[in-house]
Amino acid sequence: MALQAGIVGLPNVGKSTLFNAVSNSAKAQASNYRFCTIEPNVGQVDVPDERMAKLAELVQPQRTVPTSIEFVDIAGLVKGASKGEGLGNKFLANIREVDAIVHVIRCFEDENILREEGEINPISDKEIIDTELQLKDLDSVEKKIARIEKQAKTGDAKAKRALEVLLKCRQHLFEGKNIRGMMLEGEDKEATADLCLLTEKPVLYVANVDEAALLTGNKFSDALVKAATDEGAQVIVMNNSIEAQISQLESVEDKELFFSEYGLTEPGLNRLIRSAYKLLNLITYFTAGVQEVRAWTIQNGWKAPQAASVIHTDFEKGFIKAEVIAYNDFVQYKSEAACRENGRLRIEGKEYIVKDGDVMHFRFNV
Length: 366
What we know:
Blueprint: E1 4-8, H1 15-23, E2 41-46, H2 50-59, E3 63-65, E4 68-73, H3 88-97, E5 100-107, H4 122-153, H5 157-174, H6 186-193, E6 203-209, H7 219-230, E7 234-238, H8 240-248, H9 252-262, H10 268-279, E8 282-288, E9 292-299, H11 304-309, H12 313-317, E10 319-325, H13 327-333, H14 336-341, E11 346-348, E12 359-364
Parallel strand pairs: 1-4, 1-5, 3-9, 5-6, 6-7
Antiparallel strand pairs: 2-4, 8-9, 10-11, 10-12
């Protein structure tokens, strides 16, 4: 399941530095240059999950295979992107293809790093990108309104309903608000589904702070947290340069020394990756046997046959049943056999909704 989170932001906010840290690669040139990332780079990273290590400890498999998520480093945006300024058209096309947005915002002062708009202002930076995305969405919404108005006037019930939704979307955008705040569902969501609206995508903000504010945050990140809370979004406070340094350390001992020096318990990247995974409404289930312990990514709410399909499509087509053990039960009883003996292994059918952390074995017939 190659779901992607796109890393976006204004030029020189630490966006490509963060991508380098996430992907532990040098694909993205991190420099004080307006368009240092022209083609979107893609990095696939493992999702940190302590449950994997615990299952591996109990099962002693030949190998462990974590699940992963893709991050895309997208070209820096400038004011006027919705009208094609800078690399606007390319930026907007690239962001349309991702499933969620990781918005990096500068929350540090450095006279050597340019900010065309003047003094550091994270709220203004956030609004610049919000406005450009809203303008592009407004254009998409108005074009569809023009297309279906005639249908709605003829009495087409579906077109009439879609028009009502689109008019509400247009008003929402006129007011400088993002479509995700409307929480569209069901038929309402169908009215905009073909537009792939940019401001409907879920967003996670990264407050890139200086070293001194790494653990406490600062006035800039505090302001961003307040603004994000008002729209129901999450903020992660990080120092992207430090994260890039951590990602380059190879030994566990070196990393632990680094954590100790900065008062960290784990890389901020772990929090970012887990948060992005959750932002995409993803959960993990496990298969656990002597050959391998493996994590599998599925959408929250999927039923057992859909979950089986990520292993192989035949598993869904010929699904018979699923043997399910809750993660906590597996850890408590320490093996599949012990769970079975103690009545903790359940047989579930096609309607079972898979829960995060389930340890599963599928029976199928093709």
